[in-house]
Amino acid sequence: MMKKGKFLLVSGLIVLLVFGGVFFGIKLTSNLGKTDKQITAENADKQLDELYSKIDVTKEKPIKGQIDLDPADAASELPDISKFPLTVEGTGNTTVEIFSSTEKSGKGKEGWLNKVAEDFNASGASGQVTIRSIASGTATEYITSGKSIPDAFAPSNELWGEMVKAAGVESNLIEKRLVGNVPGIVISKKKHDQLIEKYGAVNAKTILEAMTEDEFAMGYTDPFASSTGLNFLITGLNAFDNKNVLSDDAVKGFESFQANVPFTASTTLQMREAAKSGMLDGFVLEYQTYTNASDLKDSYEFVPFGVRHDNPLYALGELPAEKVKVLEEFAQFAKQDRYKELAKKDGFNGLEEYQSEMKPLDGSTITSAQKIWKEKKNGTQSIAAVFVADVSGSMDGESLNKLKESLLKGQKYLGKDNSIGLVSYSDDVSINMPIKKFDVNQQSEFVGAVESLQANGGTATYDGIVVAMKMLQDELGKNPDTRPLIFVLSDGDTNQGNSLKAVRPLIEAYKIPVYTIGYNADLKALETISSINEAASINADTDDVVYKIRNLFNVQL
């Protein structure tokens, strides 16, 4: 299509982030440098209309594409396991590889298991161990999909171990507890006092009741990726029916408190950054992290919940006897007093008196609970999302090709119950798809638009965002019970049209999260956009971009 002597392209986009506990390269930015020019909601519509009227907007004719109705192949979207570092490498004739959760196989106070492993390898034992640092949810996905099965698995809690068993992977418990930890809800001291005054006690049950009554604004992490997030989901379902967490009463109870959850993050780091803005009364966190964070201990109370995070150790598959022996020796080695003392210094082995009141659950029940979360997490609220694609000349080549690939694969995770619109921009802005339910027809048009993308012209990023906001406000006028989202795919180099200074007050007034994903990008510029309403920004210049996008959609859509 020709316009003003330049090829205007057609479309597309979709976006971001993460998951796992785990989602590499994903950054949730905090609320930074707010503009002094705040506007009221009443004035926002008028200012939006004024900005929109000055933008050259083209409504493109739909282009149908061939859609792939086969279910998404989750295993194929997992990056190569080498993406996750070996924090300790064994060199003996008999070496076992252990997938370990990150809070004990990282650096500094999160490196307890590494220290134990290093000493074990130097001890003259019958074999050695290799430690791969990988979040429990992500590790479980590698193992259950068969893409990468290590000799052993040391997740944060037993829930993941049960899921591995339910998937048909031979799993034998070597040690119920390597090191002690407890999940909890971190609550601001002021809110904690208010809950005590009303309910007489603060525990998971009273917190869930307060959430149901819209008296407590709490965030938690993705239960497909985060150990604490999964534990909280199970705890919530159990609170409403402790005999059957999958019953109608449990699901209805879940929907009642989920309706008042303002924020779900892919990782604990993202949750903590969001909490800094003051938007949350509480959020989930492990005690080991809480006790190492002086800024949290001064302002928040810790309330334990759910099953303990005692870091069990499982042997996987049909291991030869000599490897099983190494694992057994390693588990006993870790129980020495000096490693218990080291664990204490690193924040582990606290709240030893805490015990869970929940009965053990099998892996198939836990997997079903995750599915309930995915299906019911948005309740009766509908979602309208507009994807804003940068098709300027600077995106030509590899960046645009990668954008297309990620959109075409990522669109399988959008969900037919969501309403989706698509905008592309260069010098001007094109509406490639108005906001409609993402049924088969809309999906076909999305695929066709993405496949037709070409790069040319300048970069008017904020014009694209203005058009997306206008589309969403019009949609909210027709469907008020809608949660609006914007996703921007760009290299971040804006050189035409409106500026951030002009558009930022509107983003703030409408409180629309603007997620960004950068292709060979000025990441700082994109992070600034996402920081306005506590959204996330990711770097797509890695081989795991589709995985990041899938995890983002799993949480947000």
Automatic annotation (TrEMBL):
Pfam families named among the record's database cross-references:
VWA
Question: Which species is this UniProt entry from?
Answer: Rossellomorea marisflavi
**SUPFAM superfamilies, per database record:** Periplasmic binding protein-like II (SSF53850), vWA-like (SSF53300)
* Coiled-coil region list: none
Concerning InterPro entries, the annotation shows: CLCR, VWF_A, vWFA_dom_sf
Domain (VWFA) spans 384-557
- What SMART domains does the annotation carry? VWA (SM00327)
Q: What is this protein called?
A: von Willebrand factor A
Q: Which domain of life is it from?
A: Bacteria
Cross-referenced Gene3D superfamilies, in alphabetical order?
von Willebrand factor, type A domain
* Taxonomic lineage: Bacteria, Bacillati, Bacillota, Bacilli, Bacillales
